[in-house]
Design a protein that fits this description.
six-stranded mixed β-sheet, 27 helices, ATPase_NBD, ATP-dependent protein folding chaperone, transmembrane helix, Actin, Chain A, domain 4, 4 domains, alpha+beta, Hypoxia up-regulated protein 1, nucleotide-binding
Length: about 950
C-alpha cells in the first residue's frame, strides 16, 4: 500500500522487506478501517481563551487527548492583535511588530469593547490608554468602529477575524475541520457582551456550544484532575485571577451529588460567590510604567518634541514597558532601553522594582477587594476555604502575591498552569457538549452576577397605575434554569420590560443601559373572550423565561392558562383522540406533576419560595402575580391539578362525594420582544460584515497561494540545478535531456529576478508544471534505479515464504495425509507454478535490465515487481484462508449401553476418559505450518468514534489504577 501511494505521488519511499506478507496486509487493512471510522464519525472541537492580551486555543479530537494548539511559530499562546497595512492583514506577533511602526493600524486589547456603545465609560478609558486610534460610532447600532483611512472595522468583525485565526490553528493541529467551540468570557460579561461575542463567532463560521466564565472553566479543570478527592462533603476553594485587563475572584464548592432522576452520582462544581474589578490588571500597570518612561525621556531634554505627541514613540514605550514589567517580576532592577525612540535619540533608564511598585501603589490597595466580595457573596468565612488558587498571568507579580498571602494568612496554591487552565477546562466542556465523545460527567453550576427582574404596570384598587417589580434570576442563583411569571390581573393587551436589578453604580456604568428588553403581548382580550366560558376559568398569563448555560437571557413563550371543569357526562363524551391530545399537550408544555417533572442534576436552593412569600406580604390583593421556577425549585400551585386531587381524596374519605374533574388548557399569546440594550449584529448588517470578512479571506488566500507557488518554483529550480551536478542524477538522462533541463532552469531563474517578481500565482504554477514535465523523465529513471533493489529484495522474501509454505502444504493433501486433506493436488500444483513462473520472470527481467544503460528507458519497473508480488500473494492468501477454515472430520461416537454392574460403570467411565484424551490429542495434532503468514494475528478493528478521552494522559501515561476519563 505504502509503495503504491508513493508511486502515485512521485515520492522516494522504499519498500520494506516482507512488506507484502499476509500479516502486513491485514494490519494495513485494520489501520485503514480505523482511520475511516474515525473520520466518518468523529469531529474535533476547540475552546478559545480570547483574553485581552493573549489567545490560547485548546483542541480535542477522536484518539487524541486534550491539548493546546500551537500557532505558526510553534508557540502555545498568540497575542490578540490584528494589523492592516497596504492591503495586507497580519495577526499575533507580526501584528505587534507592525504596530510599533504603525500603531494606528494595529488593534489589540479589544475584548472589553464588545457590546459597548460609543459613550460607555470603558470606551472612554480605552481611548485614554491608546490615543492614537481613530474610534468612531456605528450609525446604526452606536457601537465601536475602528477607522483607518477609507477602511472601517466593527468590533465584532475584528474579534471574528481573531476567532478565524484560532480556528485555523485548531484545524492545523487536529487535521480536521472545526465548526464547534466553547468560548471563555469574563464572568462580568452582561447580555450585550455575550450576544456580541456569539455574533462574532457566527461571522467566523463557528457554532458556539457554550460561553463559559473563566473562573468556572478553571474550577472545572482543577476538579477533573482531582476527581478522586471529591466526596459527599462539600470542599470550598477560592480561585483568584489577575489578567491583563481585569481581576476576579470566585468561591466554588466541589461535592458528589446523586441525581434523583438517573440515580447516578456525579461530581458537581458550583460557583457560590464572585467578586471582580474590571479595570485592575497588568495593562493598567503597563500603561503607568509607559507614562513614567515617557516623562523621564522628556526630562532628559534630548529633543524638543514631546514624546507623548508621537504615536510611534508611544508604541515603542508601551512595548518596552511590557518587557520591563515582566523582568521586574523576577529582578529587583533593570534597564529600559529603546534605540531611536524619538528624533533618532536613544533612551536608557534604570528602573527598580520599588519605583515600579510606587507607581502602582493605589492599584495594590485594590488587590484584595475582589476576594472579599467573593467571600461575602458566598456567605462563607475565609477559615472554611481549603485553598486560594492563583491563575492569570499577572498573579506572578511578587507584590500581588505578598498582599494576598498577608491578607489570607496562609500560603497560596500555585499548582495550576496560570495561562492554560481555563482553556483546558473549556475544551473538556466542549468534548462533553459535542457529539462523538464519551466523557465522565462533571456538572458545572454557574452563578448569576447581575440579577434580572420583570417590571410592569398594574392597576391598583384606587384605579391608579403602579409599577410592580418581580425578580426573575436573583444574584448568585444557579444557571442554566427556567423561570415562569404569572400575570393574574391583566385582561387586555399589555407590555412589560426586563431589566437588571440591584446594580452597584460603578457596575451599572460599565454595563450601560439597565433595560434589556421590552415585551408586548397582543390578543389577550381576544383569547380570554374566546376561551373563558361557563365551565372554563382563567388562571392567568404565564411568561416562560430561560437563562441558558451561556448566561444569555431569552423569553421562551407566553401562554394563557385555563382550567376546565369536566363533569361526568362531559368526560364520557370526550373522545379518545381528545384525551390523547390533552396528554400530549401536557407533556410538551411541561405542565406535569412534581413526580413527572425532570429533575436537573445537582441540588439547588429554593430561593424563589422565600422571595415569593416576601413579595406576597407587600401585595394587598390575595390573587397576585407570581414567579415560578422550572425544575427542582418549582412548587405546584394551590389551584393546580395535584392540589385538587389531594383535596378530592380527602373529601371522598369524608362524604364519599365525587368532585368534577379539572383539566388544564393552554393558549399561546403572541408576543414581540424588542431588545433595548446594544442591538446584536444581525440581518443586513451581519450579511454586510460577512461579505467584508469573506473579501479579506479571499485576499489572504490569494496571497498565500502566490507565496506558496513562488516558493515551490524557486525551490524546484535550485534543487534541479544541484541534482544535475550529481552523477547519480546526471547519469539517468541523455545529454540532450540534461542540457534542456539546465537551459529551462536558467531561463526561469532569470525571469524570477526580473519580470517575474510580480507575477501571479497562476503564472508560477504554470511554469513549475512546464519545468516538471521536462525534468520528471530523468527523475523517474533515477527513482526506479534507486528503488528497484529494495523491491527485488521484498519479492525475494515473498518467494522464500511462499516456498516454505508450499513445502508444508504438500503434507496436507489427501495423497500424503488422508486424515488431513486440506489442499487438493490442483491447488498445490497451481501455487508451485506461480512460484516457478515468478522466479523465471524475475531472473529474465533482471538480466535484461542489466544490459541497459541508466539513461535508457526502464524495462523492469517497481510497479511490475509489485504486480508480481500481488499475484503471488493472492495465490498464497487463498490457501491460507482455506487452512484457517478447515476443521478435521470427527466421527460420531455411539452412546454407551447402560450397564448394571458397578464394574461395567467404571469401565464406561474409563472409556469416556480415553475418548476425551483422544480428542485432545487430535486437536494437538492439527496441521501447523512453519513460516506461514499469520492471517489471524491481526483482525480489522473498528474504533468507536465515541472514544473515552483521558484528560490526564498528558501528565500520567498509562498509570495503572489512576485513570481519569474525560
Amino acid at each position: 500500500m505504502g509503495t503504491r501511494q508513493r508511486l502515485c505521488t512521485g515520492g522516494g519511499g522504499r519498500i520494506r522487506a516482507g512488506a507484502w506478507t499476509t500479516k502486513t496486509l491485514l494490519m494495513t487493512l485494520a489501520v485503514m478501517v480505523t482511520v475511516l471510522a474515525t473520520v466518518a464519525n468523529g469531529a474535533a472541537v476547540m475552546s478559545v481563551d480570547l483574553g485581552s492580551e493573549w489567545m490560547k486555543v485548546g483542541v480535542v479530537s477522536p484518539g487524541v487527548p486534550m491539548e493546546i494548539a500551537l500557532n505558526k511559530e510553534s508557540k502555545r499562546k498568540t497575542p490578540t492583535t490584528i494589523a492592516f497595512r497596504n492591503g495586507d492583514r497580519v495577526f499575533g506577533e507580526d501584528a505587534q511588530t507592525l504596530g510599533v511602526r504603525f500603531p494606528a493600524n494595529s488593534y489589540g486589547y479589544l475584548i472589553d469593547l464588545l457590546g459597548k456603545t460609543i459613550d460607555n465609560p470603558m470606551v472612554d478609558l480605552y481611548r485614554k490608554r491608546f490615543p492614537y486610534y481613530d474610534i468612531v460610532e456605528d450609525p446604526a447600532r452606536r457601537t465601536v468602529v475602528f477607522r483607518t483611512g477609507d477602511e472601517q472595522y466593527t468590533i465584532e468583525e475584528l474579534i471574528a477575524q481573531l476567532l478565524q485565526v484560532a480556528k485555523g490553528y485548531a484545524e492545523d493541529s487536529t487535521g480536521q475541520p472545526i465548526t464547534e467551540c466553547v468560548l471563555i468570557v469574563p464572568g462580568f460579561y452582561g447580555q450585550a457582551e455575550r450576544t456580541a461575542l456569539v455574533s462574532a463567532a457566527r461571522l467566523a463560521n463557528l457554532k458556539v456550544l457554550q460561553l463559559i466564565n473563566d473562573y468556572t472553566a478553571v474550577a472545572l479543570n482543577y476538579g477533573i484532575f482531582r476527581r478522586k478527592e471529591i466526596n459527599e462533603t462539600a470542599q470550598y476553594f477560592l480561585f483568584y485571577d489577575m489578567g491583563a485587563y481585569k481581576t476576579s475572584a470566585a468561591v466554588v464548592s466541589y461535592q458528589l451529588v446523586k441525581d434523583k432522576a438517573t440515580r447516578e452520582t456525579h461530581p458537581v462544581v458550583q460557583v457560590l460567590g464572585v467578586g471582580f474589578d474590571r479595570t485592575l490588571g497588568g495593562l493598567e500597570m503597563q500603561i503607568r510604567l509607559r507614562d513614567y518612561l515617557g516623562q523621564e525621556f522628556n526630562k532628559q531634554g534630548k529633543t524638543k518634541t514631546d514624546v507623548f505627541s508621537n504615536p510611534r514613540a508611544m508604541a515603542k514605550l508601551f512595548k518596552e514597558a511590557g518587557r520591563l514589567k515582566n523582568v521586574l517580576s523576577a529582578n529587583t532592577e533593570h534597564y529600559a532601553q529603546i534605540e531611536g525612540l524619538l528624533d533618532e535619540q536613544d533612551f536608557r533608564l534604570l528602573v527598580t522594582r520599588e519605583q515600579f511598585e510606587g507607581l502602582c501603589k493605589d492599584l495594590y490597595e485594590r488587590v484584595t477587594a475582589p476576594l472579599d466580595k467573593a467571600l461575602a457573596a458566598s456567605g462563607l468565612a475565609l477559615d472554611v476555604i481549603n485553598q486560594v488558587v492563583l491563575f492569570g498571568g499577572n498573579t506572578r507579580v511578587p507584590k500581588v502575591q505578598d498582599i494576598l498571602r498577608t491578607h489570607i494568612g496562609q500560603e497560596l496554591a500555585k499548582n495550576l498552569n496560570a495561562d492554560e487552565a481555563a482553556c483546558m477546562g473549556a475544551v473538556y466542556r466542549a468534548a462533553d457538549l459535542a457529539t462523538g465523545f464519551k466523557v465522565k460527567k462533571f456538572i458545572t453550576k454557574d452563578a448569576v452576577l447581575f440579577p434580572l427582574q420583570v417590571v410592569f404596570d398594574r392597576e391598583g384598587d384606587s384605579g391608579a397605575l403602579r409599577q410592580v417589580r418581580r425578580t426573575l434570576f436573583g444574584a448568585m442563583n444557579s444557571y442554566p434554569q427556567k423561570k415562569v411569571i404569572t400575570f393574574n390581573k391583566h385582561t387586555d393587551d399589555f407590555e412589560f420590560s426586563v431589566q437588571y436589578a440591584e446594580l452597584e453604580p460603578v457596575v451599572g456604568d460599565a454595563v450601560g443601559t439597565v433595560d434589556l428588553a421590552r415585551v408586548r403581548l397582543s390578543e389577550v382580550a381576544k383569547k380570554l373572550k374566546a376561551s373563558v366560558t361557563e365551565n372554563v376559568e382563567s388562571k392567568g398569563i404565564k411568561a416562560h423565561f430561560l437563562l441558558d448555560d451561556s448566561g444569555i437571557f431569552s423569553l421562551a413563550n407566553v401562554e394563557l392558562v385555563l382550567e376546565k371543569t369536566v363533569t361526568k357526562e362531559d368526560d364520557e363524551d370526550e373522545s379518545t383522540f381528545q384525551k390523547i391530545g390533552n396528554t400530549i399537550s401536557k407533556l410538551f408544555s411541561g405542565d406535569a406533576t412534581p413526580e413527572e417533572k425532570p429533575t436537573p442534576e445537582g441540588v439547588e436552593k429554593e430561593e424563589e419560595e422565600a422571595t415569593g412569600a416576601k413579595e406576597s406580604k407587600e401585595e394587598e390583593q390575595p390573587s397576585k402575580d407570581k414567579v415560578e421556577e422550572s425544575g427542582k425549585d418549582a412548587k405546584p400551585e394551590a389551584n393546580e391539578t395535584v392540589g385538587d386531587k389531594k383535596t378530592e381524596e380527602g373529601t371522598e374519605a369524608k362524604n364519599a362525594t365525587v368532585k368534577p374533574k379539572i383539566v388544564t388548557l393552554k393558549e399561546t399569546i403572541p408576543s414581540k420582544v424588542d431588545l433595548t440594550y446594544v442591538v446584536p449584529l444581525d440581518g443586513e448588517l451581519f450579511e454586510a460584515s460577512a461579505k467584508r470578512l469573506a473579501a479579506l479571506e479571499e485576499v489572504d488566500n490569494a496571497k498565500k497561494r502566490r507565496e506558496t507557488a513562488l516558493n515551490a518554483l524557486e525551490s524546484f529550480v535550485i534543487d534541479a540545478q544541484v541534482k544535475l551536478d550529481e552523477e547519480e542524477y546526471a547519469s539517468c538522462g541523455t545529454e540532450e535531456e540534461i542540457a534542456s533541463i539546465r537551459k529551462r532552469c536558467g531561463e526561469i531563474s532569470e525571469w524570477l529576478y526580473e519580470d517575474g517578481s510580480d507575477a501571479d500565482a497562476e503564472t508560477y504554477e504554470r511554469k513549475l508544471d512546464e519545468l516538471r514535465t521536462v525534468a520528471n523523465e530523468v527523475y523517474a529513471r533515477h527513482w526506479e534505479h534507486q528503488e528497484r533493489p529494495e523491491a527485488l529484495n521484498a519479492l525475494k522474501q515473498m518467494i522464500n515464504g511462499s516456498e516454505a509454505f508450499l513445502r508444508n502444504a504438500r503434507n496436507l493433501t489427501k495423497d500424503t495425509n488422508p486424515e488431513k486433506d486440506v489442499f487438493t493436488a490442483v491447488e498445490i500444483e497451481t501455487l508451485e507454478k506461480a512460484i516457478r513462473s515468478t522466479i523465471e520472470w524475475r531472473d529474465a527481467e533482471v538480466a535484461e535490465q542489466k544490459k541497459l544503460a541508466r539513461n535508457a528507458p526502464v524495462r523492469l519497473t517497481v510497479k511490475d515487481i509489485t504486480d508480481r508480488m500481488a499475484t503471488l500473494d493472492r495465490e498464497v492468501k487463498y490457501l491460507v484462508n482455506k487452512l484457517k477454515l478447515w476443521r478435521p472430520k470427527v466421527k460420531p461416537t455411539p452412546p454407551p449401553k447402560p450397564e448394571k454392574t458397578s464394574g461395567k460403570k467404571e469401565d464406561e467411565k474409563s472409556s469416556k476418559e480415553e475418548g476425551q484424551e483422544g480428542e485432545e490429542t487430535a486437536k494437538e495434532e492439527e496441521p501447523v505450518l512453519e513460516q506461514t503468514p499469520d492471517a489471524s494475528a491481526e483482525e480489522p478493528t473498528v474504533v468507536d468514534a465515541k472514544e473515552e478521552i483521558d484528560p490526564t494522559a498528558t501528565e500520567k501515561a498509562h498509570e495503572e489504577g489512576d485513570h481519569t476519563e474525560l
